[in-house]
Amino acid sequence: MTLALDDVKRIAHLARIEVSDQEAEGYLKQLSGIFALVEEMQAVDTTGVEPMAHAQEVTQRLRDDAVTETDLHAAFQAVAPQTEDGLYLVPKVIE
Amino acid sequence: MLNASLKQLSALLAEGKLSSVELTQSFLDRIGQLNPSLNAFITVDREKSLAQARAADELRAKGGAGALTGIPVAQKDIFCAQGWLTTCGSKMLHNFVSPYDAHVIEQFNRAGAVNLGKTNMDEFAMGSSNETSYYGKVKNPWNLDAVPGGSSGGSAAAVAARLAPAATGTDTGGSIRQPAALTGITGLKPTYGVVSRYGMIAFASSLDQGGPMARSAEDCALLLNTMAGFDRRDSTSLEREKEDYARDLDQPLAGLKIGLPKEFFAEGLSADVAKAVEAAIAEYRKLGAETVEVSLPNSKLAIPVYYVLAPAEASSNLSRFDGVRYGHRAPEYTDLLDMYCKSRAQGFGSEVKRRIMIGTYVLSHGYYDAYYLQAQKLRRLIAQDFVEAFKHCDVIMGPTAPSTAFNIGEKSDDPVSMYLSDIYTIAVNLAGLPGMSVPCGFGGNGLPVGLQIIGNYFSEARMLNVAHQYQQATDWHQQMPGGI
After folding, report:
1. How far, in Å, CA of B401 to CA of B177, rounded?
2. A5-43 has which CATH code?
3. Residues of B in contact with A42 (CB under 8 A)
4. What pTM was computed for the model?
């Protein structure tokens, strides 16, 4: 697979990371090197192999549908960049 | 006192020959003296540490002391600790004072251990040299021009330089074992699920596992006794009976079957590392072990598989850093999207951005099957190799890293060459197995070499026994860097 500069810019946008044209050039070179390494995977025939998502075959635990957490919003919002009246503030989304 | 084991320190505390305040003070003084040249710690807070030490002394006076009460332990800065700056080595969290404790931190607090400070690390645990930390590179105490390994390089350097009697680390692809090898200390990555990931800032959740880093296997056993345990807040924490990981330390090794994977002694391994590892295996034969050749034919694919799966998980995990709820927010932006893009561009370093982009790409439409799904299938083949190998042996041994510590700057511009430092450790994470690194000699440049011990699932007590018996017969783990 060959990456182009536009691919890098598109990926960066999907990842919500601003990149300058100059940075994108650098990432293109490095990501291409990494993908060349990753390409070795394609040589193996994995027909019939079950994908392994996890190291342990465990099922999700269930718990009773009851309130177990205490209200810690003041402590958690103390580390937020901007809050008001218990709400997180972000730039206006809807005009 | 600097070279005392945790058991010896605990005995001194119990006999009243030493208080936790004195012990903590002496390590804090040493950190004050040596950390400026090593940069092993990001945050040191004398007042907080000493307050915990005083509390530990009081607990002991009341008769409530356990094995780790009053013992100072350095905590990797990936573990959230209430009231402590917790940066994960990133500018993104430069202002994050954690409002809660990780399970591991809670366990140490409950045991009455003292948090000696937060250790430096590769940013978000992504790196093998500790060069990606926003808080500066960590130096290897054996040679200040060399890297300490990563990502738990601050913890490794702190233990090697005797700035801390013990420390915690985390290991996603080798981040406990590789720095342990490069700094001449002992480190253990437990079976996936043994140590809770709650409050341990996530990198690749299906691989991340916390573990102890100390000078000996015996010390690691005591630390793991405190760190391990079921925690309902981690959905992959395993519900198992509490076990004493030190219970088998003194068992003899006669009849132990050691598997030597031929792939681990092939091209790419430095001659000096091979020599030290082979000498260690000869020592095991003297202790009564037998060796058998095993094969891990798919292990050569571990690095490509890892560099699909770990970035994929990371791209999802790190999407939480958006400048809204915590961490860095760009000072200027035009709208919400611009705020996300600028906050993340400013908050993350280049290695983290590279991995987020790789992950975003392999999960994107049209590439999922070819990359992500193929990697998951290969992960199963890699894990099955170990299942097959463990039919013929009790433990697997080989080198931890292909060379001794490389120089700062040597690989930092070439990600692929850096990634190859973890060639022997990554397969263990993919399989979810426990792995250790034990010091076993020195390379041609006088830097430490690590022997890797890989065990079957939940065989930590046996691995610690295997490591401890070697450490009773050799003194590599007691060597101390010169000039400190």
Report:
1. 8
2. 1.10.20
3. 370, 374
4. 0.97
